[in-house]
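[Meeting: bench + compute handoff]

Bench side (C.D.) handed over the final construct sequence. Compute side (W.E.) agreed to return the predicted structure before the next meeting so the bench team could plan truncations. Sequence as handed over:
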Amino acid sequence: MPTQTRLPVLASMAAAALSLAAPAVAQDRPGLYISAYGGASSLASTSVTESRPSQATITGTTSFGSGTGAGGAVGYRYGNGWAAELAWDYRSHKLQRIGDTPVTGEFASTVAFVNGYYRFAKLGGVRPFIGAGLGYVTEVDMDLGRNGSDQEYSGRGGLATQVMVGGEVDLSDRWSLSADLRWSQMGKRRLSSTQGGSTLQDRPTYQPTSLNVGLTYRF
């Protein structure tokens, strides 16, 4: 089983185990909340073929370096473990190679999500949670530089999905600190040059995994 497929399956198995261990109803104060989060992100390799009028076509599997992500959300907790929120996520990943060709740039995205969560009863001081989201891709952007020349490719639209698993610790009656692992899928993206002339002849896949630390304020 590929790694990108195996990870969400393992997350689902972990969530199922937590649900068996936790009481049926989680104690959670109802009300509005806001949250902000950020952390490290990695991006699965994908195939890219780029053509430019004045340079040779390059093709191959991408290699990405370090990545980062950030986001914010506003939501409502219902007091029974369930919560719903509207969120905005940004992720960016350094582009290092396409096949055997060294390149520079980044592959980034912004997505608006509707997320749902279930928070279990506390295990010690930690409240485990699972979640899933459905989003609209507001932009996927690839900045690609080689041989001293930069090109930008961009696209928007289409659906994104994600699953989350993590834990939360209360800092006070209103503040809490969380950590979560998220697997996202935005499918194959059609990206067009914003400057004209150059083309991406295939549709690169955008499939990030991110580890986030977040801060939540409950009203």
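W.E. noted at the follow-up: Residues 138 and 156 are 5 Å apart (CA to CA). C.D. will use this when planning the next construct.
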